[in-house]
Amino acid sequence: MDGFNDSEEREEEEVGTSSRDFSGDQLCEESWLQLGIGRAREPFLPQISKSYLRIKDGRMTIRLLKKYLVSKLGLEDESEVEISCRGQRLLPLLTLQHVRDNIWQLHETSTSLTLVPESSRNEHLMTLQYGRSS
């Protein structure tokens, strides 16, 4: 799928096209996203094999992540999967920058900001959950 490159080293995928600073309106070249299973509905969706994604452009939308999951999970359509952050269902047109600034960071505590192992101090890990749509 366009914009996604497999990497065997850290069970990660690369997303987006341009390198940017993590502060302000953009994400830096070493920003990370983790996709994990959220509150599951039957039939349950499996955990994708490469749950860490490197984000290169904060303008990437949730719709692109849904397309990625559909491809990786062998689903028929985007409507079969939903993505959430901190329990809030994310609309397909939202950008990762918007999610980061308005959902993830607003509720951030010192224990929820995690550095990826073997990463620089600028590599932040934003965790999103996915599951079968209701």
Oligomer: single chain
The helix content is 10-25%
Order of helices and strands: EEEEHEEHEE
CATH topology annotation: Ubiquitin-like (UB roll)
- Whole-Å distance between the termini? 26 Å
CATH architecture: Roll
**What are the low-pLDDT stretches, counting only 5+ consecutive residues below 50?**
1-11, 16-29, 109-123
Average predicted local confidence, pLDDT: 75
Major beta-sheet overview: 8 strands, mixed
Region (Disordered): 1-23
InterPro entries: LAX2-like
Protein name: E3 ubiquitin protein ligase DRIP1
Biased composition (Acidic residues): 1-15
At a glance:
By secondary structure, this protein is an alpha+beta fold.
What would you note in describing this structure?
The chain is α+β, with helices and mostly antiparallel strands. It has a single domain (4-132), classed as Phosphatidylinositol 3-kinase Catalytic Subunit, Chain A, domain 1 (Ubiquitin-like (UB roll)). It contains two helices and eight strands, in the order E-E-E-E-H-E-E-H-E-E. The protein has helices spanning 62-73, 96-104, and strands spanning 4-7, 12-15, 31-37, 52-55, 81-85, 88-89, 114-115, 124-132. Strands 1, 2, 3, 4, 5, 6, 7 and 8 form an eight-stranded mixed β-sheet that branches. A hairpin with a 4-residue loop joins strand 1 and strand 2. The radius of gyration is 14 Å and the shape is globular. The protein starts with a strand and ends with a strand. 23% of the residues are buried. Mean pLDDT is 75; it is low at 1-11, 16-29 and 109-123.
